[in-house]
């Protein structure tokens, strides 16, 4: 299986490493411009570049602001409309409950734990060591940063950003494009 990365920087390296652990190869990457030091072949802009038939696309660019996460999700949508396939990428070192649902184009990094009946939206990033407890809904394009904990029954909005080490207490909601700072604790009644 040949993959095309969308993005060629640091997040792409983590995504490519997970693909390599599964025996997959990277055919090249797309980006607005060539990324200095990128180990892969630059194929062209992240839109309107013809890519080899039968390739899969992977979101190799991260995002830490709602605007960046929205652009990232728009790129996934664009490539899916072009007929490109974007299966979720799940680290073999993540633990995923059998009843959890993982959306297309999402990235589940090393050390992640996703519990029963959790739903991860399209193009979401569940970053290194994050915990998603039971019955949580993580919106399309959301980013749960390393070490964040989202406790049971929470709803995280579309393209929301949950900072590293944040704790989202049971039943709390974060609106679409909402931001929770690194290390913050968010209760349901705030």
Per DSSP E runs of 2 or more residues, the count of β-strands stands at 21
Bin the strand percentage. Answer: 25-35%
- State the end-to-end CA separation: 46 Å
This entry's quaternary arrangement is: single chain
Order of helices and strands: EHEEEHEEEEEEEEEEEEEEEEE
Q: Flag low-confidence runs.
A: none
- Radius of gyration from CA coordinates: 16 Å
SS class: alpha/beta
Overall 3D geometry? globular
In round numbers, the mean pLDDT is 95
Helix content: 10-25%
Number of continuous helical runs? 2
Top keywords for this entry?
single chain; 190 residues; alpha/beta; six-stranded parallel sheet; 2 helices; globular
Descriptive report:
The protein is α/β, with parallel strands linked by helices and 190 residues long. The chain has helices spanning 10-21, 66-81, and strands at residues 2-6, 25-30, 42-44, 56-59, 89-90, 95-96, 101-102, 107-108, 113-114, 119-120, 125-126, 131-132, 137-138, 143-144, 149-150, 155-156, 161-162, 167-168, 173-174, 179-180, 185-186. It is 15% helix and 27% strand. A 6-stranded parallel sheet has the order 5-8-11-14-17-20, covered by helices on one side. The longest helix is centred in the middle third of the chain and has 16 residues, at 66-81. The chain is globular.
